[in-house]
Predict the 3D structure of the following.
Amino acid sequence: MNKIRIEGNVYTQEYFESEEENGFAVRSSFHRQLYVFLKEWFSAPSTLRVRTSGSTGAPKELTVRKEQMRQSAKMTCDFFGLKKNDKALLCLPLEYIAGKMMVVRAIYAGLDLYPVAPDGHPLARTDKPFDFAALVPLQVYNSLQSAAGKRRLSRIKSLIIGGGAIDDALEKALEDFPNAVYSTYGMTETLSHIALRRINGTDADRYYTPLPGVGLALSEEQTLIIDAPLVANEIQITNDIAELRPDGRFRIIGRKDNVINSGGIKIQLEEVERVLRPYITGTFAVTCIPHPKLGEAVVLLLEPSADAVRVGETAAKVLPHYWKPLHVYTVAAIPQTGNGKTDR
């Protein structure tokens, strides 16, 4: 594991230990970011720093062991049966764990890694048939908007989607894909995903299945507790309210800190968004404001492209009484984190 194959060319650890930048590093700014990360990976220290996205709280830096990252890579590569020279697409930011782990998987399994700048439509710039790729929901959605993008997406033999919620409409668009498509569950603290959920084919499921070596439980507040000793030093007590089945499968209902109390009724903001999602085109968010009578009142935020009057009327029809937004506001943009999640 002291080398990596990038776009068909093999680069050894010695290459990254030299001070001369050449080869793939000069092809683009994203190639250079990859080069910088690989220099750090192949350096002597057994740890490195990773940055959280801020989607579950204030962004922070963590120190993680490279051996734990290797174990995470092994879990994923073993699950998907990835092997030497399989083509893998790297189109996620290298500032975050998802992008870094794609690189470590390539090193671990001998994959042939193809870097494409991580914007909203990476498949628009490559026509290669990939064996493995990780995308965020926005990248998948954008690829489905054209025949060429959909064809390229459908040729990925094993596709994992993470970094944000996959709505019902997106799942519907992927259900007939010929190859395996999975939703992932995990976080920076667990070095990417610790559970997978098939969203197409006969094995499609609404519940996540933990990877081998991962133990789960629920706290008194019904939030998910993760015990994954191979990839995390500590047991992770999440803020994700979950339903945990006896066989170990689970589904996420929403965030503990996204529960509001409106007139004595507890409302999970993500559940409100789930119901509204089929009726709203574009980015939106459900939040709350203080209210003298209710304590907290539900508020719906829309971007300018949405018809606020029509959406408000639809919300009044499809939502339970206590979930209905008291106000519908149009804002310039819905704030998002670096990996596409709503920045609450």
